[in-house]
Here is the input.
Amino acid sequence: MSVDARLPTKRKRISALAGFEPRHIVSPGDVITEDTGYMRGHGTYVDGDKLIASVAGIVDRVNKLICVRPFKTRYNGEVGDVVVGRITEVGQRRWKVETFSRLDSVLLLSSVNLPGGELRRRSAEDELKMRHFLAEGDLISAEVQSVYSDGSLSLHTRSLKYGKLKEGTLIQVPPSLVKRCKTHFLHLPCGATVILGNNGYVWISPLDNEEATLTDGQTDRLINDDAPQNRF
Amino acid sequence: MADAMLSSFERTFIVGGVEQDFRCDGRSCQDYRHFEVETGIVSNTSGSARLRLSKTDILVGVKAEIGEPHLQKPNQGYIEFFVDCSANASPEFEGRGGEELGTMLAKTLGRAYNHKSAIDLASLCILPGKQCWVLYIDAVVLECGGNLFDSISLAVKAALHNTRIPNVTVSTDEGDVELEISDDPHDCRRLDVSSIPVTVTMSKIGHRHVVDASRQEEACSLAQLLVSVNGNNNICAMQKVGHGALDPDSIFEMIETARSVGKALNKGLLNILKKKNQKQAKIKRKLVSYYRRKIQQKYQIKNLHRFFLRFILAYSNIV
Here is the structure.
């Protein structure tokens, strides 16, 4: 048993921790530049001659355009991103997925793989069985297929590496901490699979091919699993 | 309550982990997450505190006002609780959505403080049957990361520790009673918080119980037992929440755990508050000696009288 009460302590400077001076970091109200030759982008505003940050983040400059990339933000999706999300609603031929973006994303029935990998048009029967595939509260990994004009995302899971997530834990971090890179599926030598969602959702689970050797009561449940739940 | 949405797999993962005494964040069943307490942050209250426990964020303000005592208890002051669940914490709380939870939290606090061991209400009495101090305790839930009951009770205790009640002088003038409330911010007294209870929530998950459940764990728990433990390590209130059933045997186990956790919580909180007081006193001493030197230099006074200095400092809003 442990109880740990603390007083709010003084934060250490990042440079002291990392051993190098960080890039241009600003907080709201900081003056970025007093040069009038620049254009204001996202996260900035002009007051008189000064360009001032309106969010806390890193200053980004492209030619004459200055933006501030905020640390704490909702997820802005791009096509091809790997995301981890949670089903919040089952609707007409689509699922609503919570992906920490400003609007809920959609996963169309036509953009999931049918159980057994059948390739055919989705019938009305499939539509009735949608809740068998994915129910409210389920976690999935998916890829961003397209971005609609209002910024909401359309996802797809048409690859064996995507789909429903089973035993494991979800960790949420700010999306700005996850870099877009070549692979977001990591198999660690210690026997864990990590999915780094671009939306800041990180999924950690036991390695896939070792599922059968799980301990205790978890084994029989895996064997007794309903068929559709297997990669739906 | 604003329950987290979980898939069935996550549920079994959490329940399985609890059964093996190993929770998602690496704690054992009886471990508490660390929490940060800040006191004296709202300037227009008599006492205030803010508590952060993981993502849970609670702000408490105490306002001492003069009122009339209840007819049944003419020799005592009284406390009133109000808890507001801000829509910032969860969209569910928007409009009147947080009212139900807020009333429940306030009632739980009221029940714990109702016991005579909690706080010395007689010390809040000014004129028996006529005037007494009323403590209005308002709490706001700014963010909800689970374990609201415990964190609110801890924050209230910290705020009461920070509360300063001005001294009142009663004078009788030809039968008329006059109350004079001191303006001097230093002419005040503080409450004795050593015996004030904290609430420990025991959440039943699977066949075991855990303390300080996170939001995800709360979603897996069907029944909770709230046990209020006072400074003498005695139980002064108990309540069951949730629609699940509790095994009579496990209730005794839970109470035992709650007592030991409550004892550690009380001790930890009081320690940290004491430390904060010491720190403040140190800063104050430094400031006072600094200003004493300044004033002495400026006005060429050799022996500045202690009370005169205090008077200057009190009214110049320096300390």
Chain B has a mean pLDDT of 88. Chain B touches chain A at residues 5-10, 12-13, 16, 24, 28, 30-38, 260-261, 264-265, 267-269, 271-272, 275-276, 279 (CB under 8 Å).
